[in-house]
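ok trying this again, last paste got cut off
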Amino acid sequence: MQRLLILFIILTYSCSNSSSEKNDKKEIINIMKQQEIAWSKNDLKGFMKGYWKSDSLKFYGQSGITYGWQKTLNNYIKNYPTKAHTGTLTFKVNDITKIENNSYYVMREYHLNREKGNANGVFMIIFKKINDKWKIIADTSC
């Protein structure tokens, strides 16, 4: 009887953990879909809602590391000033993996279809649940 109870507890935990991960991934994908929509409207502040609004945010790109939400937004505004620059964004998610409780890394591709010329690349972002909301805390793009 005791073995059955232990098995039941393990199965219950395993199923709830799997369900929780599925919900986490669904929420993360939804944030990325909202980012695609905002970017494609040249709404860079809307795009940045997916990022942690903190000076501790890290963005690593071709120009090196940028620290902070506002500086990251300023770089986006400088480099993508018009709809012709932002174009239409689509993401292809290649992998979402749990790092530990309340954090995941996401490997994905981006595709920009735009008048100025199309652009494609890959990047990895780290999501962390902060104040019960998923936020990107680190982004590396190329």
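PB: full thing came through this time. The longest helix spans residues 2-40.
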